[in-house]
Amino acid sequence: MTAVDYTVIVVYLAGMLALGWWGMRRTSSTSDFLVAGRRLGPLMYSGTMAAIVLGGASTIGGVGLGYQYGLSGAWMVIAIGLGLLALSVFFSARIARLKVYTVSQMLDLRYGGSSGLISGIVMWAYTLMLAVTSTIAYATIFDVIFGLDRVVAIVLGGAIVVCYSTLGGMWSITLTDMVQFVVKTVGVLLLLLPIAVVKAGGFDAMKAELPHGYFSPMGIGGQTVFTYVLIYSFGMLIGQDIWQRVFTARDDRVARLGGTAAGTYCLAYAVAGAVIGTAARVLYPKLGAPDDAFATIVKDALPVGVKGLVLAAALSAVMSTSSGALIACATVANNDIWARMRGRTLRTAGASHDEIGGNRVFILIMGVAVIGISVVLNDVVEALTVAYNMLVGGLLMPILGGLLWKRGTGAGALASVGVGGLTVIALMGWKGILANEPIYFGLLASLVAYVAVSLATKPTDAAILDVWRRRLAGEPATPTSETTSPATADA
């Protein structure tokens, strides 16, 4: 690392704080703070969506999988891209038309307010652990850059994200994510990828040096690919951090086309990470851990200045996911848990009731909690696996069922969340957190409970379904349904 590299990184970090301040000046309503005023165009929407889904796991972890398995190491990030494509093509337009802030508010609209609190707690736990795992990644990057102690690195990186997220909410995060998308594209795709391949002697030399399995599309194993699709592709369909970005789209067309562009970008990023990892295996065949491949090739293979930019790209990947998960966690905690515990009316569409101060406090509180948990937690993979297993096992069926099956009921949704979640927890305790069985049987149990209980109970009230249909179609709603959730209306 030279003075030039350090200067690039410091300027980048200072720029993130400056954009946070600028975003604060553009924020004048709850809608601005939580969903960027619902007015992002296709370019900014697609860039920021790609930024949030491609975090430290996709960058550092994706290169590590390429180092370990070769080109088939791209499957984890490919699964993320496929999930984003499915969300954008089949669901994003309808989701955007609902004009809500959280996934739990969507469930309230669809089922009449019978499952929002429980689903909110599950979603809060998922977003919290997602923010924690992203924050822990700062330790690796800042250790490479500055040689900082693990705790200091986590506090420094986390404090920067908490600062700009608290200042301007989604507007600040959107502005910083757009810069992070550009830096990540230049640093990883346009610089590190070709340099790594050239340093490794080109593809012919790589094929001659490595076993044939490194260039097999299924070398990582069919069961692993299937599990990635179940966890990450379906996770993209229902995660609060992803939905909250869909809510920022200016209209249906932006949500669909912008998300499709972001999903396609993810597929290219997946292949790039695997190729970089494969090149690193040729250059450094005896690394202590696969996840060291990214930092090692950056330190040893890149010229002055470029090294700083690529490390800034790694920071971009981590910060975009961390900030997106943080605001999602705070939004759920405030609007789905705290508001319900206080019996407060939930605002779902209007922006006239300004609660920026309350949401800002929750981002700060959740940010401090994330930093604290990150300092004491060690096993990132297990924490992230627990989060995704709970999310997909508990919430996939009620959410997709609500969007696709009119006969689904609130009782069925509650049973699905409870049975699916408990099955996942029980099997993780029995088979191990990283086993495949928890998500397989959790999803099956959730589906059976949802269908059986829905068919055995009274159909959802026609008035609730009528409000749901109107909102889903983007038709004008009554003043009551425009500002109040069914949970509050029923109460």
UniProtKB/TrEMBL annotation:
Keyword Transmembrane carried by entry: yes
Pfam families linked: SSF
UniProt subcellular location: Membrane
Assigned keywords, A-Z: Membrane, Transmembrane, Transmembrane helix, Transport
Membrane topology per record: Multi-pass membrane protein
Primary residence: membrane
Membrane-spanning parts: 6-24, 45-67, 73-96, 117-139, 151-174, 181-200, 220-239, 260-284, 309-333, 361-380, 386-405, 412-433, 439-457
Sequence similarity: Belongs to the sodium:solute symporter (SSF) (TC 2.A.21) family.
PANTHER family: SODIUM-SOLUTE SYMPORTER-RELATED (PTHR48086:SF7), SODIUM/PROLINE SYMPORTER-RELATED (PTHR48086)
UniProt protein name: Sodium:solute symporter
Organism: Streptomyces javensis
Source species taxonomy: Bacteria, Bacillati, Actinomycetota, Actinomycetes, Kitasatosporales
